[in-house]
Amino acid sequence: MKTRAVVTLMRVIVGILFMAHGISKFQMGLGNTAGWFGSIGIPEFVAYIVAFLELIGGIALVVGFATRYFSAAFVIMLIGAIFTAKLDGGLLGTDGMAGYELDLALIALAAYFTIADERGVGVDQLITTRK
Hints:
The protein is an all-alpha fold.
């Protein structure tokens, strides 16, 4: 039972972090976010996908819905972020730019939620229990 509580807490915290990043992109304006993506060589339409994935996927993790699928998408997205935007800055970042240490930690957690049988208390558990 203790494991379930800890896993639920981890999933909710990770969901809140992704949600916050998604909200931030909407607050900056998706056009501005897309422009920044374009300025670093990423197709601008990817900004819209990332913003919606972070927001909707973050909410899904908080409530524990489709955890495995959203977590797998986050792993892919974060690996892409490291290799397209953060690798040059190094692990801890340089010149005021963020490094990829947070991305690595989130990849580890999202990978866990993708492959683990225990994903905590949430909608996924309710659906599985009813089957």
